[in-house]
Every structure is written in structure tokens, then in C-alpha cells.
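Attaching the record inline, Q. Sequence:
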Amino acid sequence: MRIVVTGATGFVGRNLVPILGASGAELLLVGRDRAKVETLFPGQPACTYDDLAARGAGFDLLVHLAVANNDADLPDEAFRAINVGLLLQVADSARRAGIRRFVNVSSFHALDPRNHGAYAESKREGAEKLAAVEGIDTVTVYLPAVHGDGWSGKLAFLNALPRSAARVLFVPLAALKPTVHVSRLGAFLLDRDADGRDGEVLLSDGQSGNLFYRLVRRALDLSFALAVALLLWWLLGLIWLLVRVQSPGPGIFAQTRVGRNGAEFTCYKFRTMKTGTAQAATNEVPMEAVTRVGRFLRRTKLDELPQIWNILRNEVSLVGPRPCLPVQTRLVEARRRRGVLSLKPGITGLAQVNGIDMSDPERLARWDARYLALQSLALDARILLATAKGRGQGDRVADGNSGEN
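Structure, as predicted:
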């Protein structure tokens, strides 16, 4: 591959360029100060932004790393000039050079709509305007804290520690907030078939390999399940009785769901629909099928309490993608494509607290994939707090009222 890299003198670039070079890729490094680039990367071809359109002819990909970072002490207009103005200037030069693929590198900070800092606002604006550029395939890649041979930003203090101590301390820190090794960005860039169909890609190390994260999550799950069983057994019994009295049928509803790695399991909930209601996604069920007490249980999410049994069986966690029915094949396939099925399902999740239900499988799968990348103890805590405050009341049944699948 022939790859153009802007902003190569920053932390990400200094770690990324050797990876791309080692793969055999032919590189062209672009910066405002060509001499600085050539000093840092001796032997690598370099040019300024003014020469990009001419020197970039025949290249396959442009990776835009140049940025005014969130820790830069700059006025708001400077952030916008670099993160929007320079971005669009480089995209236009790439288009004129005939470069087919343009990757704009951004940060997880820009994904948070509550973040109104100059950096986040300018990066969001830049990504939005880049998506409207015609004549070139564009995608924005969002990254959390990046690490390589060392650490930067808030994790830079680890560089002062002995390497073995730094690696041990890094594990719980990575469980608290997502991180990504620069090699993952390199692998994405070198993959000609990389999936950017959504216009954005979120890269992270994930938490599947973080033992600290997995232990803390499991401890929290078990603590919750045991606390409900030991302290709220009377509430469970009362709800079961109300369900039985209010409508004919069992108090507990058992249903097959799709779990981790696509394995099916039996999910237990308090029955909220009339006996005999056809099994279907909640948004396909008429409101008339929901009982009066069922509406209350769904709104308060009390119908989920019997899933403490699924938690004890390690089939469900407190936070994760909501488990769907096997008949929801579009959602299952969309989740499989995005790697979401590697996650344990949850009683609540990122999509749910943001009002995303199962009526749009592709949109839900995108949000589930976002959770896969953003997964951390801090995010899980925010999701649980949002759920406790009443957000994420669930999937809407057919007439638009609240429900939960």
C-alpha cells in the first residue's frame, strides 16, 4: 500500500509510522515543518501541505492525524481552524491527488454530546463536514487513550515507572477507561477490506483480555443478585402474586434468548403480557397484550428482577447488549458482523439508556458495537446510574408506549 500520513510528529504518528513502514507500505509524511518531519523520520519522503496534491498522486490512502489536541492551550478559533479548516483542506488535496480512501482520526471525547469543549465541538464539526465531501471515500476513526511503546496524556506518568510496575498499574487503569494500542489502528489502516460502512469506526483494546475488569464486573453482578435474593425476596414474592392475580397464567415468564457467542439460553422475567401472546420483538406486540401491572413493571424495570438467576448462571450481566429472540435474525446478524455477540448480554445497556430499542436492528447493533468499544467500569457505572434515574425504560410496543423486550 501507498499511504500518506499527516501529523506524524505527534505521539500517535511517532508510534504508527514504524508499524506502517515495517509492513512494507510506501509512506509520504506531511507536515507544516518538513525539516522537523525529516529529522524525526530520516529516510522517509516528506512534504508540506502545499505540495500534498502533487506529491500524493497515486497513493491509496491518507491518514489524517494532524490535530489541535484537547489539552492544547489555544483559543476556540484555533481549534476550529485546525480541526475543521485544515481537515477539509487536506481532504480536498487528497481528492485532487486521486487518493481513494481518507481516514480522519478523532477521539472518544468527540463522541460525547455533553462535551462542549472547543476540541470536542471542533472534531464533531469536522467529522460532519468531512462526511459531506464528495469524490473520495471518507471515514472517521475514533480512539480512546492511545498507548504504544509508552503512554501519553493522563497516562504519561506511567513512563516514569519501572516497565514491569507500569504494566501492572496500567491494567486497572485500562479497566476504568478504554484504551487502544496503536497497532490496532495500524491493522485497520492496512486492511483494504476494513468495514467503514457506517462512516465511523471505534477502535479500542476492549475489556475481554482485562482480568481486573472481568473480576470487578463479576463481583458486582454477583453482589447485586445475592442482595436482591436475600433482601428483596419479599418484593419478588409480592410481584409474583400481583401478576398471578391480575391475569391468568404463570407469574414467571421464561423465554429463549440469544446470548454470548450466539448461544441460546432461557431468560426469566416477571410475566407482563397476557398468556398466549405470540413471541415477537416488543415493538411488534400490540399494547393490548400488556397487562395493567405489566405496564408498571416494564416502566420501572421490576420485571427484570428474576434475571438474577441468569446472573448467577453467568448468562447475563447487569450491563450489556439486551438479549434478543432467535427469530430476530436481522439483529443477530448485524450484531455478529460487528462482533457484539462476543459480549455477555445485559439487563440494561448503553443503547437502552439512549432510547434505542429493537425496532431498528442496524441502529441498535451500531450502538451495541459502540458499547463494545467504549466498555469500561466508568461507563458501566454511568449506565447503571442512568437506569436507576429512569432512563432506558425499554422497547416501545406497537402503539408507541413504553415497554421492554
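The chain has 15 helices and 13 strands. Residues 50 and 93 are 9 Å apart (CA to CA).

More tomorrow.
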